[in-house]
UniProtKB/TrEMBL annotation:
Main localization of the protein described in the UniProt heading: cytoplasm
GO molecular function, one term: ATP binding
Catalytic activity: L-glutamate + ATP = L-glutamyl 5-phosphate + ADP
UniProt cross-references to HAMAP family, sorted A to Z: ProB (MF_00456)
Protein name: Glutamate 5-kinase
Source species: Dyella jiangningensis
InterPro entries reported for this sequence: AceGlu_kinase-like_sf (IPR036393), Asp/Glu/Uridylate_kinase (IPR001048), G5K_ProB (IPR041739), Glu/AcGlu_kinase (IPR001057), Glu_5kinase (IPR011529), Glu_5kinase/COase_Synthase (IPR005715), Glutamate_5-kinase_CS (IPR019797), PUA (IPR002478)
Coiled-coil positions: none
PUA domain boundaries: 285-368
Keywords per UniProt: Amino-acid biosynthesis, ATP-binding, Cytoplasm, Kinase, Nucleotide-binding, Proline biosynthesis, Transferase
Length: 386
């Protein structure tokens, strides 16, 4: 079925998106990489930035680029070590391809499973990505194949993109594929297959459209795309699947239109975030704040700055979820601390501009950033989730 027969649909307004581009859209027929399909996607990223939107790119292609460079003068195997070597060799040309298509600087960010399950490294990765976006740099994320091993690998860049979308608090996950939508069956094998333009819930019936569990036969690797959509949905992020080989589809995205399949989010992004902050176990530590901080935090739109901290008690590390209480010990909020207990204690009552001089480094101006904070109203009533 031609992609032109799929009707376009409006996307909800978004401020930040993660765009995943697979190696099948970058690999050249004769080996190496090509800009054939990447040009339209890069143009979409540039156009988005021009209207104030931010895009984080998750790109495959390093192994294909490395294989092309090595083919001429050395043999290579197919085991994990060979793949890791090819990835190391191909990272530079893959980044160079995107830099050639971007008027902005491009930065490479390599992640592993360990980086994303360790809260401190998770926060470090998020802080880096946020800073790159603030600097008007295009982050290009890939799995760090050179150090990952089988039992620790994220597995594929579809799922990595979903994790990154949650990491950067994205409003939308975009998956550029070699197929233009989710179909009722594999359109390459079944002429009666029809495109599904919207999926409100990833039911077993929907998952079956991508082949059974563990199946190697799917609609263009659709199984991992549905897995990614499920991860994004759980984080309150919708997923848009479209053909990366159709420049018109990329152009429509810039106009707020999707020609493909939209996977709805299970709940709003803020609802998902607040739910996690409400129910996740907290570290045995507390941050005591003054009346001014209590008032500022009550609105749910302010971060906790060092100047509002009276004292710090208990034990916690950078990235831990901690309770925030007023001078009388009453709960005010809970959130992820940017600093460990010893650091927060040294910063209590100080101005944010003093952080680096006091510690010799800075993880940011906030003790707890507003995006990582749930107020007492969120915790006790859930009012901010409605």
């Amino acid at each position: 079925m031609s992609p032109t027969t799929i009707a376009s649909q409006a996307l909800s307004p978004w401020r930040r998106a993660v765009l995943k581009v697979g190696s099948n859209l970058l690999a050249a027929d004769g080996g190496g990489l090509t800009t054939r399909y990447a040009e339209a996607l890069a143009a979409f990223i540039t156009a988005s930035r021009a209207v104030g939107r931010q895009v984080v790119l998750v790109s495959s292609g390093a192994v294909a680029a490395g294989r092309a460079q090595l083919r001429a003068h050395a043999p290579f195997g197919s085991d994990l070590a060979a793949r890791q070597a090819l990835a190391a060799l191909g990272q530079a040309p893959m980044i160079a391809l995107w830099q050639s298509l971007s008027p902005r600087p491009v930065a490479q960010v390599l992640l592993t499973h360990d980086d994303l399950r360790n809260r401190r490294r998770y926060l470090n990765a998020r802080a880096t990505l946020r800073e790159l976006l603030a600097l008007d740099v295009l982050p290009v994320v890939n799995e760090n194949d050179t150090v990952a091993v089988d039992e620790l690998k994220l597995g594929d860049n579809d799922n990595l993109a979903a994790i990154v979308a949650a990491l950067v608090d994205a409003d939308l996950l975009l998956i550029a594929s070699d197929i233009d939508a989710l179909y009722s069956a594999d359109p390459r094998l079944d002429a009666s297959a029809t495109p599904i333009t919207r999926v409100d819930a990833l039911t077993p019936e929907v998952l079956a459209m991508a082949g059974g569990s563990g199946s190697t036969v799917g609609t263009g690797g659709m199984r991992t795309k549905l897995e990614a959509a499920a991860k994004a949905s759980a984080a309150g992020i919708p997923t848009a699947l479209f053909s990366g080989r159709d420049p018109t589809a990329a152009g429509l995205l810039g106009e707020g239109q999707l020609r493909g399949t939209l996977f709805a989010a299970g709940r709003s992004r803020m609802q998902a975030r607040k739910y996690w902050l409400r129910h996740a176990p907290a570290a045995p530590g507390r941050i005591h704040v003054d009346a001014g901080a209590v008032r500022a935090l009550a609105g749910g739109r302010a971060s906790l700055l060092p100047g509002g901290v009276l004292e710090v008690s208990g034990e916690f590390h950078r990235g831990d979820l901690v309770e925030i209480v007023d001078g009388a010990g009453r709960h005010v909020a809970r959130g992820l601390s940017q600093y460990g207990v010893a650091e927060a204690r040294r910063l209590a009552g100080k101005h944010s501009r003093e952080i680096e001089s006091l510690l010799g480094y800075s993880y940011g101006a906030e003790i707890v950033h507003r995006d990582d904070l749930a107020t007492v109203a969120d915790i006790e009533t859930g009012e901010s989730d409605t």
